[in-house]
Design brief:
With 449 residues, the chain is an alpha/beta fold. It has 15 helices and 14 strands. A hairpin with a 7-residue loop joins β10 and β11. Bound molecules: pyridoxal-5'-phosphate. The site of pyridoxal-5'-phosphate has 14 residues, from α5.
Length: 449
Amino acid sequence: MQTGDGGVTPGRSPRGNESGSRLDRWLDSYAARTRGMTASEIRALFAVASRPEVVSLAGGMPYLQALPLDVVGRSLAKLVAERGAVALQYGSGQGDPGLRERILDVMAPNRVVAHPDDIVVTTGSQQALDLVTRIFVDPGDVVVAEAPSYVGALGVFRSYQADVVHVPMDADGLQPEALTQTLTDLKRAGRRVKLLYTVPNHHNPAGVSLSAARRPEIVRIAQQFGVLILEDDPYGLLGFDGDPLPALHSLNPEGVIYLGSFSKTFAPGFRVGWAVAPHAIREKLVLASEASILCPSSFSQLAVCSYLEDHDWKHQVGVFRDLYRERRDATLSALDDMLPSAEWNVPNGGFYVWLKLPGGLDAKAMLPRAVTQRVAYVPGTAFYADDQGLTHLRLSYCYPTPERIREGIRRLASVVDAEMEIQSTFGATGMHHGQSPNRRVYAPSPDLT
Ligand SMILES: Cc1ncc(COP(=O)(O)O)c(C=O)c1O
């Protein structure tokens, strides 16, 4: 084993390592669509943020310790013993009919009404995002998306060379007037808008939900401009107050593709999500999925199906809701106590607080110092296809315990205070990141050196 630059690390082939770190001899051969494929800020962060000494408020990982893992384990063993020949076999490209039937119950609280035939099971909702974009978006087509937007969706849109145009949100979600204006401008400019991508419930990363009053408005505007809505709803059952609001799909099933997922309400490791789409679109989705993966994992689908059948999954969703509510509260009270100079939203569900730093501080430039102080977050710029988001960051409260959250925010606040001090001493554009004053303030923590 070699170490050092270009060296070999265990588990990686020398060739793979070389292509990552040295000149890529195949550079001229890549398809044009790969130009938009760059590592997201989250990905680059994971290696450091996953160290135990770092309080990671970065990744949106569900707290799986709250699942009855022994029960799940027994159910998996039973599945293989009793139905292994089916569970470990290829299956239908559209997904297991039994699971599709069960998914109807899961969507009922969000008032998505469908037939099992309308559902396409996918490898997480991420694959559904990919399939929908693949069948609709040609290079240069416009996808209208909230500002900010889920980083994984932006990655998909980029990989199909879509032009993402953002529309602002406020505390009630996507702004209808701004949407109308944007669609009018795009129409005048002769641009082809293929999709309106939206996360109406407990938005990632903004933490807000589209209000009940705005839902029919957004659907009407999309209809008026002939734009298909891509409704991405992995957090719909994770609201902290009251019943879920009706999905956009329930207001116009012919004009909306609805995406769901078991990642946040059960476990992301199974990689089971789904799309509900109008008939003709559904046919294309199945063909696209078969071309890509043949069929979703039979084992995962039957595992999820057994879980839904044999376990009180609604109770478990309630357990998750209570747990995340407590962590949301811990985050907000720690911010109130320790970082009152920042601004943030109050999420009514989901995993995320969207925070604006004081004094125009640059969240991306501050991140290395934060990690040195053993706290991680995702800089706001990751969630935009353009240059917005510099002074924002996303905090995920789903994984750390309330005590760790408080400690993480204490560390974050100390970094922000130090940055503010530097700014007041040297000015916003004066000696800034990486220069000597920082070294004094941010003595590297022993854990990370
Ligand atoms: C808004 C949104 N959509 C889609 C996904 C992808 O989820 P899945 O695990 O179902 O692929 C995520 C995951 O964080 C998400 O936050």
